[in-house]
Design a protein that fits this description.
With 449 residues, the chain is of the alpha/beta class. It has helices at 39-42, 50-65, 69-80, 89-108, 128-136, 142-155, 175-183, 211-224, 249-254, 294-304, 324-343, 351-369, 382-391, 401-411, and strands at residues 161-168, 191-197, 229-234, 268-274, 309-315, 394-396, 418-423, 426-431, 434-444. It has two domains: 9-120 and 321-374, no CATH class; 128-318 and 379-444, Vaccinia Virus protein VP39 (Rossmann fold), CATH 3.40.50.150. Strand 1 (161-168), helix 7 (175-183) and strand 2 (191-197) form a beta-alpha-beta unit. Helix 2 (50-65) runs antiparallel to helix 3, helix 2 (50-65) runs parallel beside helix 4 (89-108) and helix 3 runs antiparallel to helix 4 (89-108). Mean pLDDT is 85; it is low at 1-32 and 110-121.
Length: 449
């Protein structure tokens, strides 16, 4: 269930006008006056709560969808006078949505609204140390790492060889903790292999070192902890992509065979998917895949590899709707969570906070500004993903009490608003009672015993 924008008390703070100055080639976009905007929007010129911001965003989206340039300009004028990247959570969230709407307007209303693309958010490359700090800011990623690693440790008990097929966007940041835990096994550590694709979705966080360098660093740490270690990179061919910004998933899938992966009968195969499946297209592709989507084809291929466990972790929201207004409503009522959480412990001008929120803005821009192959953020809820897994022939396995204790211990290190609950097949990270990230564990049907 998604929270309404008016629900969280911390999102009801007053928003004051300010000068945000989003770069535009045509400043006359914001030359509206209070008397020139529709009566229905004038009430939003004063104190804005979440409900008013959502109302403005939906008005703007509707205007863009109907090519009503005048109304879109008027609504953006109002938003520009209340949004701020260094204000309260409402203002900061409004700032991200305004940028996204400007980006969309520059493409759908190009003949009458001439924008400068400098309003688009650009990302820098992080160092490994910066990335470690990034994932520690809030438990958005660490929750999944903790739940996954604990479940993996249980699944590989008794195995002397372990092979992890890792699909994630966080550059193997979860594995040092697992390597450390393996080193402490009473019976001694297993040999560990980790295989990753050479190419990843071009989404934040971005790292300034190569996959090869990541593998070397993991290898050095494993050696320090006396864990036998191998690191393999799947060489993905990106030349087949017509769009340079697209991810070559079909090339990745073509390499997922027992021979290419050098699977061994005496090792436990673990498949780890952290914030990754969402980037697989859910549109049917036909041909050799018998009208299946890449998302379903991926699951079918993984099932055929017979892993001893498959972990799926992602954000618990459905952002796959074709309707722009639907996506705005869901996105706004979901992504207030990190903005609200960061407000509890980081100053408004904190560089770390601004960078984290910038990455959320990158996501919002893709969700709102683009359609077709360019819209790569096609997240589906944990409930939908669980049903997809079952349809693909997987059986859910529950997280152990030990895992529950470890996750609770992790959350104790963060703000009191974070919590955890069990929900059907999922373990769910919550903020002030609202779902944010889900974690699930699966085995192919027939292996659950």
């Amino acid at each position: 269930m998604h929270i309404k924008a008016t629900a969280p008390q911390s999102m009801k703070t007053e928003i004051r006008p300010n000068t945000m100055s989003i770069p535009l080639h045509n400043p006359s976009l914001f030359n509206a006056t209070p008397n020139s905007i529709p009566r229905a929007l004038r009430g939003c010129l004063g104190s804005l709560d979440g409900a008013c911001i959502e109302k403005l965003l939906l008005h703007c989206a509707s205007a863009l969808e109907s090519n009503d340039v005048t109304l879109a300009q008027q609504v953006m004028w109002v938003l520009n006078n209340v949004a701020s990247s260094v204000g309260d959570p409402n203002q900061r969230l409004a700032s991200c949505f305004l940028r996204a709407l400007i980006s969309r307007a520059s493409s759908v209303c190009l003949t009458t609204m001439n924008f400068n693309s400098s309003g688009t958010i650009h990302r820098r490359l992080m160092s490994v140390t910066e990335l470690a700090g990034y994932v520690d800011v809030i438990p958005w990623h660490r929750f999944g790492f903790c739940a996954s690693n604990s479940a993996i440790l249980k699944a590989i008990q008794g195995y002397s060889r372990v092979h992890i097929l890792d699909f994630s966007i966080t550059h193997c940041m979860q594995w040092p903790t697992l390597i450390d835990a393996l080193a402490k096994r009473p019976e001694g550590p297993p040999s560990l292999r980790i295989t990753v694709p050479s190419y990843r979705p071009l989404v934040p966080p971005l790292l300034n070192v190569s996959a090869e360098e990541v593998g070397l660093r993991l290898g050095n740490f494993a050696k320090y902890r006396d864990v036998p270690f191998e690191f393999k990179i799947i060489d993905v061919d990106a030349s087949s992509c017509k769009d340079s910004s697209a991810f070559p998933f079909e090339s990745v899938l073509s390499h997922l065979t027992p021979s290419e992966l050098n699977l061994r009968n005496d090792e436990a195969l673990v498949v780890n998917c952290q914030n990754w499946i969402r980037y697989l297209s859910d549109e049917t592709i036909g041909s050799a895949h018998e009208d299946a989507s890449l998302r379903d084809t991926f699951l079918d291929i993984i099932k055929g590899l017979n892993p001893c466990i498959m972990i799926v972790v992602d954000e618990d929201s459905d952002l796959s709707a074709s309707s722009l207004t639907s996506r705005i409503t869901t996105c706004f009522n979901y992504l207030w969570i990190p903005f609200d959480a960061l407000e509890t412990f980081l100053p408004k001008d904190s560089h770390q906070r601004l960078e984290y929120e910038s990455d959320i803005g990158h996501k919002i821009e893709n969700i709102i500004s683009y359609e077709g192959i360019q819209r790569v953020e096609r997240l589906e809820s944990g409930e939908k993903m669980s049903q997809r897994m079952k349809n693909a022939g997987f059986f859910s396995i529950p997280f152990s009490e030990e895992t529950i204790r470890e996750v609770k211990f992790l959350l104790d290190e963060h703000a009191s608003g974070w919590g955890m609950k069990r929900e059907d097949d999922m373990l769910v990270l919550t903020w002030k009672g609202h779902n944010s990230v889900f974690a699930t564990a699966w085995v192919p049907n027939g292996l659950e015993d």
